[in-house]
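Field guide to reading this record: the first block holds the primary sequence, the second block holds the structure written as discrete tokens, and the final block holds curator observations. Each block starts with its own label. This record concerns PH domain-containing protein, catalogued under organism Aphanomyces astaci.

BLOCK 1 — SEQUENCE
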Amino acid sequence: LEGYLIKQGGGGVFGRKNWKQRYFLLHKNILSYAKTKDDYERGKILKEFSIVGSVIKDSADAGEGFEVWPPSTGQAVYDYKQGLFGSDPTLGRRKVDGDSERIFYLRASTMEVKEQWVERLRRAVILATRAK
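BLOCK 2 — STRUCTURE
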């Protein structure tokens, strides 16, 4: 499954948690995202993480919103080192320990799109858990 979702920022240096549109892709049990589909296809991935053990919840505040809660043990979240012109896959990825217990707050464009994502994410969590 892939497509655009709106995610709440992690706070950054100034603590702002703005909502930004990002291009997400779920492959098996790995959820990753980039600024745009074009960036994704060029390998300019912002972050990726395994959803094994995660809990996918509906948001209480928004009909199209949902949340990806990490497992109680935390999750390994990776970003890609930034070169002068953006992400450079040749520089490799690095683990972002500050995001290991981060809840990802996401919104879809419609209820139908939200239901698709929630159902597929939950199924991926179940399949990955069974494969352990």
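BLOCK 3 — OBSERVATIONS
Helices lie at 37-41, 111-131.
The chain has a mean pLDDT of 85.
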